[in-house]
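Q: What would this chain look like folded?
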Amino acid sequence: MQVEEIKKAMQFKKAHLNLVQFVLGKGYTISVFCDSEEELIKSNSYKDIKDNIESMDETEIVIYDKENKNAGWAFIIPYNDDEETVSDWTMTSILNEWDNQYQKLVSGLEAEW
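A: My prediction, written as structure tokens:
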């Protein structure tokens, strides 16, 4: 496995980065907020979203579907433990789908160790 592949795999285990990759992969966009101020508007750039989230101690992201409708939000504390970086989120279909796949990933990783 190459170094870049290892870095990407490690990022995928962090809940907030997993969430970002998951929803972007489904064609959604993300806005990043800090103290109710919009820092990044409806982006589909993983790097820009990741950089904005990780430049703050805590943030909220809002997820938009392909029709630009609000599909949910998540509260993120990027420096918590991997599974705790997404500390709260709305119970919408896309976020429930993300949570289910993330829990399977974590369970699978734990079973391997």
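The chain has one domain: 3-112.
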